[in-house]
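Reopening this one. Same input as before:
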Amino acid sequence: MPKISNKGVRMPASPIRKLTPYADKAKQEGKKVYHLNIGQPDIETPQIMLDAIKNIDFKVWAYTPSEGFFSYRQKLAEYYNKRGYNISPDNIIVTNGGSEGFIIATQSCLDPGDEIIVPEPFYANYSGFACMSDAVIKPVLSSIDNGFALPPISEFEKLITDKTKAIFICSPNNPTGYLYSREELENIKILCLKYDLYLFADEAYSDFCYDGQSFVSPMHLSGIDDNVIVIDTLSKRYSACGARLGFLITKNKKVLATALKFAQARLSAGMVEQIAGEAAIDTPPSYFENVRKEYSERRKILVDSLNKMEGVFCPNPGGAFYVVARFPVDDAEKFCQWILEKFTYNNQTVMLAPASGFYSTPGKGRDEVRLAYVLNKKDLAEAMICLEKALQEYPGRTAKKEQVLMNS
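Same output, byte for byte:
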C-alpha cells in the first residue's frame, strides 16, 4: 500500500472535533447533547445577508477575481477605515474563510524550518497551518492563574533565534477570551521591529469585547505597516460560519503580490458568499449591540456557574465567546470522553473541548477545558447543571487539596 506523506502523519487532529463520534453515539442513544465544544453561535445571521442570497439574479455562476470582487473590497476598506486601519481595496485579498487566509499568509511568508512564536494556549489550527508550511511553532506559556495575560515580552525574546520569522497573536483570544491591551501590543511591536519579524494578527473576534473594553489592532500601531498581516473573517461577526469567507489584510506590497499568486492558484472565493458578504457590511449597529449584550449575559451565566462548582476555577474573559476553566479531574480528555460515553443527567450530557489540544507544550492543559458560550441562556444554564453533576460523579475526580498541589 502506498505510504501517507510525512506531513500528513504530522498533521494534528482537531481537539475541537475529535470527540464527535462519542457525541454522535450519545445522540443515537437518545441523549440531548449540549455543545459547548465549538464556536458555532446560535445567534441568527443578519437578515440583510439572507435577503441578498434570496434576491440573487444571475445567469452564470462564474469565477470571481482571485483577490475578490472590487466592489466588495471597496466596502471592506471603508469598513476597516472606520476602525482606523487606513487601507485601500488593494490591501485586501478575499479568502475562503479565515483559515485559507492563514494558509496563504504562512505559505507566502514562511520557509521550511522557520519558527513562529505563539502565546499558548492557542487556536489549535495554528499547528495545522504551520505544518502545511513545514514551519515550527515555539510556544510562550500564559497561565490561567492570571487570566491568561500576555507573558512578559522577555519570555518572547528568549525564544528568538535566527530561524524566528513571525509572532502569531489572537485578540480577543481563542481559546481563552483574553483581550490584549495597547501596551501589550506596543511591546510586541518593539520586538517585531527589533528582529524584523512578521506579526500575524487573528481578529476573528474583534467585535466581541465586554465591560467597556476597547479592541486594539496592530493596524492601530505606528511604524509597523510592513510587518503586520491581519486575518479576519465574517464567520463570527455575522454568525455566518458556513459562508467560509475571510480576508487577508496587509500594507506590505511584497506580501500582497506573493499572496495573490497563491490566491490565483486556488482560483477564487465563492461568488454567492461575496454577494452576501458585501450586503452584510450594511448590517445596522443595533445588531452588534444586541449580540454583545447577549454574549455578555451568557458569559456571566457560564463564568459564575463554573466558579460556584467545587474545585473549578474560571477567569472572566474580556472578549470572544470562550473560556478556559480548570477542572478537578485527573485528565480533562478522559473526562470529556467519559461525560459523553458514560454519563447522563435527565437524559442530557455536555460536549466540551479538552484544553490540552490548545497547547503544544507536552503535559500542559491536562486539567483544563475550553467551553464556548454559544448556546441560548436557558440551554446554557441547563448545561451547567448537567456539568456540575458530572464533575461530582466522575470517577477520576481529584480532591481539592490534590488539585491545588497539582497546579502549584
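So the earlier flakiness isn't reproducible anymore. For the record, The first helix runs from residue 6 to 10.
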